[in-house]
Amino acid sequence: MRMMIGGLLLTVLCGSVRASVLPYPVQKKTLDNGLDVVVIETPEFKDVLSYNTMVLAGSGKEEELGATGLAHLFEHILFTHRMLGKDNGYNDAINKMGADNNAWTWFDITYFYPLTFSENLIKLVELESSRFKGLNINEKIFQTETGAVLGEYRKVASHPSTKMEERLYDLLYPNHPYGHTTMGYYQDVVDMPKHYEAAKRFYDTYYRPNNCVVIVAGDVKANDVFTEVEARYADWKAKPVPPVKEKGPEPTGDRRESVAWDSDVAPQAWVAYRMPAFKLGTPDAAAAEMLEELLVSPAAPLYKKLRFEKQSAAGLGFEEGTNGFESADARAIVVSAELYKEKLTASGTYYDDVVKDVEDGMDGLKSFSKAPGAVDLLKVVQSKYRYDFLAQLSSPRNIASVFAQYYRFSRDPKALDTLLDSVAALKPEDIDHLAQTYFTPENRVVLTLAYDPTAQKGK
């Protein structure tokens, strides 16, 4: 049986045979230099070409002291590539083809995703290969972009979540590059104009074919893509990519702090647990994908308790990017509760009460399998997860992005099938195991934030 979701034809379960996640073949070729090229032909999206490059390096690779924020900086800098030695050469060329062009940076990834018409394939391969294998900038361009990054930092620093993230990661990862945010430490961003040589070293180390994946989705033929990519990228030289290792032991103990903010904003309470590296296809990884629905969705007992029964939280969710700890090294999940200012004066234990409710809600998953109806509830959550997952695959760009998120862990074209098969195979006891293993005081950090008129003004 087939059905339409978001304009995409999807194959769903029929009898006892589990269908592939995608109705399109995922075709892969690895060049001699280690570059993975993946093509997902989606002819229903006529004349659309989504050309994506995933660099397996984000802020979690920034080990050089005083030089954080470089991965995010290169997200900016690659748009300034001097194609054929001309200032703005790359941007001018890509604008002429009418492409929508953007990128983002996270802890493990820098991801570039121009979108254009299929007829532009040859030209786009030329443009993208040029900037990734031989970025051409000068120190003047570098200085300009470091200024733009500092402006972006100051903009996001006006939000209290930035300050909370910075302190949270310091506490969770004092000996790992995950200990700073994607933007980097403030002083490092201020000093970034001095780090031209460090930036060149970062690019030379991580922008290598064996550390990148090209993912093409759209109205194209795989053989055409493979031919064009190999012709343009084959001379890109591979280089061993150094692993990141923690420079000390993992911190332990139940750590709790309060963060002061200099503006009268809504108070916040975050409960975070350090989690393992994400391993695609394992019960722990699959169970983690269920946590959002079991903890912070409107149907979850914890959500109902805080939002409706006790009315102690104005909002509840996972802090951005932490719902499934989908990272190459040990990361964290962070449950974030937005509180009511007026309740602070009504109860001297307001923060403690909310934090305890969150901890109790997460501890409740340690005996999930013993709850009445646990088997049926898990089936509902699994079904909803699958439906929501498939609903994301509504365009070539979205297909490529979702595929990239999970492909990076296994380099297997069947990565999405592996993910959804592992979710379908979950048992209630797997939820118990995840919570019992990782929702422990030794792995926990609690942060609260409140207005303090005496606090130092933000940067």
CATH topology of the largest domain: Cytochrome Bc1 Complex, Chain A, domain 1
Q: Number of helical runs?
A: 17
**Poorly predicted tracts of residues:** 1-18
Q: Can you tell me the number of structural domains?
A: 2
The fraction of residues assigned to DSSP E strands is 15-25%
Radius of gyration: 23 Å
Biggest beta sheet summary: 7 strands, mixed
Counting helices, strands and paired strands, the structural category is alpha+beta
Describe this structure in words.
This protein has 459 residues and is an alpha+beta fold. The chain folds into 2 domains: 203 residues, 2-Layer Sandwich (Cytochrome Bc1 Complex, Chain A, domain 1); 197 residues, Cytochrome Bc1 Complex, Chain A, domain 1 (2-Layer Sandwich). The protein has 17 helices and 14 strands. A hairpin with a 4-residue loop joins strand 6 and strand 7. The chain starts with a strand and ends in an 8-residue tail after the last strand.
Topology of this structure?
Blueprint: E1 2-5, E2 8-11, E3 26-30, E4 36-41, E5 48-55, H1 70-77, H2 89-96, E6 103-105, E7 110-112, E8 115-117, H3 121-133, H4 139-156, H5 160-172, H6 186-191, H7 196-206, E9 212-218, H8 222-233, E10 255-261, E11 268-274, H9 283-289, H10 291-296, H11 301-309, E12 315-318, E13 332-338, H12 341-346, H13 350-363, H14 374-391, H15 396-410, H16 415-424, H17 428-438, E14 444-451
Parallel strand pairs: 4-9, 10-14
Antiparallel strand pairs: 1-2, 3-4, 5-7, 5-8, 5-9, 6-7, 11-13, 11-14, 12-13
Task: Give a summary of the structure in a few sentences.
By secondary structure, this protein is of the alpha+beta class.
